Amino acid sequence: MADSLHLKVVLEALDKASGPINDILRSSKGLQRAYIANADAFKKLKIEQRDISA
What we know:
Elements: H1 2-53
């Protein structure tokens, strides 16, 4: 009985901790996508600037 109660408490703690961790992972993936999009846009602007200057 005590072992099953301990297991239940541990599993509940994991469930509570995994929610915020998953939120952090999702937001970091979104940040990564935004960073890549901005880097690509910056590269295109540099190319356009070079073409205009030439």
